[in-house]
Amino acid sequence: MKRMIKVWGIFLVVAVLLSSCNFPLTSGNSDTEISTIVAIQVAQTQLAGTMGAGNGGVPTVEGLGQQPSEPTLTPTITLTPEPSLTPTPEGVWLTVVENTNCRKGPGKVYDYVSTIKAGQQVQAVGRSPDNQYYYVQNINGNGYCWLWVQYSTLTGNTGILPVFTPAPTPTFTVTPSPAPGISVSFVQVTTCGPQYALRLMVRNTGSVTWQSVKVTIVDNDTATTVVHSLDQFRGYAGCPEDLSQEDLTPGEEGVISNVNPGQFNYDPTGHSLKVTVTVYSENGLAGQSYSTTFNLTP
Asked: Residue 250 CB: number of other CB atoms within 10 A?
């Protein structure tokens, strides 16, 4: 900028000096006038070149002292939304999707503890060797229990859980029911007028209740056979009936006599007799049956 002011100052001094000489500019110019004009033109040319070299071109009056304006930039701010964080509970959790029984061991054979309902979440602290059952905190009671994973969704690293060896499968003690049976013993020969019968004591030694009975007696001495059948257990002592029962329950005793029908028309005392007693679980000599046979000589 300072250089430009100096150049313009030199130009003005030259112009004033030349104008003060008051040289006439006529068509009959002398060599001196022509030289002066040429000198002025040369000075103008140099001035123009100097300014062009300093400013990249010949300045105009409007451009003097002005600087090009820089564009104004309006920044655009882009906001990045913060990530939504969902807290995840540590450990391994099971969310039950269907009501599931929680048991004392990893299997249906173990006793029931409580029911984990659909929608409830429980934390696992152990697992079975086959990863089918998880040892969880019982949120519906005290302590822990085993939950089947079939109806649950798992979250967390199950590999961190210790493998628990299941308790031994419970051993069920089954008390077998006694087989159906009876025991029969001879009491005496009873008589009513000309008719005779055996008086027998019978005891139910099994688990089935007996409803009807059949007695077959074969007299080996006379080749006589008598048959007694009834939907009751009825005994006689002489002519009167002394005991009658509709059935014979397990462990119960009763008395039977081969009377109406099946009595002897003679005294069988001293004869070799073969006696078969058959009992039935239903009336009419039907259903399950059991028989016992023995020999006696009254």
From this structure: 15
The model carries a pTM of: 0.45
Strand partners, 230: 213
> Percentage of the chain surpassing pLDDT 90?
58
Express each pLDDT in 190-230 by its tens digit: 999 899 999 999 999 999 999 999 999 999 999 999 999 99
Mean model confidence pLDDT for the chain: 80
d(CA 106, CA 165): 10
- Out of 18-32, 34-48, 271-285, the most confident range is 271-285
Task: Please spell the DSSP secondary structure of the chain, one letter per residue.
Answer: -HHHHHHHHHHHHHHHHHHHTT----TT--HHHHHHHHHHHHHHHHHHHHHHHHHSS---TTTTT--PPPPPP-PPP-PPPPPPP----SSEEEEESS-EEEESSSSTTSPEEEEEPTT-EEEEEEE-TTSSEEEEE-TTSSSEEEEEGGGEEEES-GGGSPBPPPPPPPPP---PPPPS-EEEEEEEEEEETTEEEEEEEEEE-SSSPB-EEEEEEEETTTTEEEEEEESSEEEESSSSEEEEES-B-TT-EEEEE--SS--BSS--TTS-EEEEEEEEEETTTEEEEEEEEEEE--
Domain spanning 92-160: which superfamily?
SH3 Domains (2.30.30.40)
Q: Note the pLDDT of residue 241.
A: 87
User: Could you tell me which CATH number the domain at 182-296 has?
Assistant: 2.60.40
Sorted by where each begins, the domain ranges of the chain are 92-160, 182-296
pLDDT per residue over 15-33, tens digit each? 544 444 444 444 444 455 5
